[in-house]
């Protein structure tokens, strides 16, 4: 499990691709590369991956074809920056909301507004996932726990403070970029339960 509090930014050093599988060598900050065990789970842009080996500050991960298809990992290239979070431990503070690291969908950035000391990013998700997105609800974008702002049909926005921009890769994003989305599990459960009872969410 993860908390959605991004612990830092890592750099993709190398990608090796074979049929149906890509292996990533990712360079972590020195203080975040210690005491990592083989088999540990790490969130890479919101996608839970397993550490397969370590060489110094570089951790290695494998991603199968289904993961590459459902997430943005298949578009990564050497030099790209990614958000990371190591798995939460019992007793850790939950500063965001609980995440599984299982990406539900991707979303496209359709607008970015950058007034002074603020940043608002608008996203468009596939219509099937819009039913789980509510104003002031939780959502995870590239592994970061965020509060949803306005929602219109299958579009929503988030408002980012300078600290979020500093600690994550959101400052790198531009219109047309694609991000990983994990829907809040509690919201999904409630919506699906109500739908089974005949109280489906009305169209926006």
TrEMBL record:
Residues 1-97, 98-194 form the Lumazine-binding domain. InterPro entries: ATP_synth_asu-like_sf, Lumazine-bd, Lumazine-bd_dom, Riboflavin_synthase-like_b-brl. GO terms for biological process: riboflavin biosynthetic process. The keyword Transferase applies. The keyword Isomerase does not apply. Gene3D superfamilies: 2.40.30.20. Signal peptide: none annotated. It catalyses: 2 6,7-dimethyl-8-(1-D-ribityl)lumazine + H(+) = 5-amino-6-(D-ribitylamino)uracil + riboflavin. This is Riboflavin synthase. It comes from Marinobacter algicola DG893.
């Amino acid at each position: 499990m993860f908390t959605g509090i991004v612990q830092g930014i890592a750099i993709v050093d190398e990608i090796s691709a074979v049929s149906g599988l890509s292996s990533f060598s990712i360079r972590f900050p020195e203080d975040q590369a210690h005491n990592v065990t083989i088999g540990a789970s790490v969130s890479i842009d919101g996608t839970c991956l397993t550490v397969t080996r370590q060489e110094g500050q570089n951790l290695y991960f494998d991603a199968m074809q289904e993961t590459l298809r459902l997430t943005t990992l298949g578009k990564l290239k050497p030099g790209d920056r990614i958000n990371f979070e190591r798995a939460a431990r019992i007793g850790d503070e939950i500063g965001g909301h609980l995440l599984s690291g299982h990406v539900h969908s991707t979303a496209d950035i359709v607008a970015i507004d950058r007034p002074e000391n603020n940043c608002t990013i608008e996203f468009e998700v596939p219509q099937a996932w819009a039913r789980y997105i509510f104003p002031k609800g939780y959502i995870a974008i590239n592994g970061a726990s965020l509060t949803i702002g306005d929602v219109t049909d299958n579009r929503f926005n988030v408002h980012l403070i300078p600290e979020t921009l500093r600690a994550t890769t959101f400052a790198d994003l531009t219109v047309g970029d694609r991000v990983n989305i994990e829907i809040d599990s509690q919201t999904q459960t409630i919506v699906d339960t109500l739908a089974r009872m005949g109280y489906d969410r009305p169209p926006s």
